[in-house]
Amino acid sequence: MKQHFTRWLPAIAKTRQDFSRRLPAIAEATRSKIANVPQSKAALSVAGVAAIGALAFGPTAIAAPVTGGPHAGAVAAIDLATGKKTETAVPAQTTGAHKVNQPASEKPSRDKLIPHGVEGAQSRVPLDDAQIANAKAIVKAAKETDVGERGAVIGVATSLQESKLYNLGHLGENNDHDSQGLFQQRPSSGWGSPEQITDPDYSAKAFFNALKNVGGWQQLPLTAAAQTVQVSAFPYAYAQWEEQAADIVQQLW
How far is 143 from 36, CA to CA, in rounded Å? Predict the structure, then answer.
């Protein structure tokens, strides 16, 4: 599996480069769209562009210290979308290893979170309040669908790869088909309406219910379990987020 993952790295890198070149066009299209939508929807569009900025600079992002502002990819995307620098203070960020008010004895063990060990090089991105809130929604859905801690890790890792834990709306012609939400699910593929799949609770539960239909998913490597549900063009990309996903789930469970 590690050999397969390595073989995919050039394709992943090329996709990142191509996407970075398209980022100004994405921002311009989004800025035009923002001018013609209500304020609440405009805010979501800007958040979507910020997330795309993070995607363009991932997936080789490494662990970052807690900061008082968004990471470089988000800053660039917001600046391009709004046409000005963002000077408003934003919530501090974390990479998923922050402390929460939960006794250590109640947190899931690493054996439950990563029973098969991680595969290949691992990536990390800093998380803002919106991303942490979406991670909480995924963990909550994992509990309610009975996929347990391991299922939660698979869900969070999948969303880290698909949207960097941002709840993305439709980005028009720059969108990947009609993919939307935390898991980039497609209405045309039967995942639900745009309103449903941009609801974190609905989209997470849809993902976990599909995961439960994968025979023996608990024994599969994370990337294989996620790919069986997602059918991605980059099936080995999910593996790189397993360590950060485990950290997040351990803290939020």
Answer: 39
- Does an H or E element contain 80, and which? helix 72-82
Q: In this structure, are residues 182 and 196 in contact, taking their beta carbons and an 8 Å threshold?
A: no
Global pTM value: 0.62
Bridge partners of 180?
185
Query: d(Cα 162, Cα 178) in Å, to the nearest integer?
Result: 13
Mean pLDDT computed over every residue of the chain: 72
Asked whether the beta carbons of 142 and 204 are under 8 A apart, the reply is yes
147 vs 174: CA distance, rounded Å: 34
Closest CA to 148 of 237, 82, 218, 53: 218
In tens, the pLDDT along 107-125 reads: 899 999 999 999 999 999 9
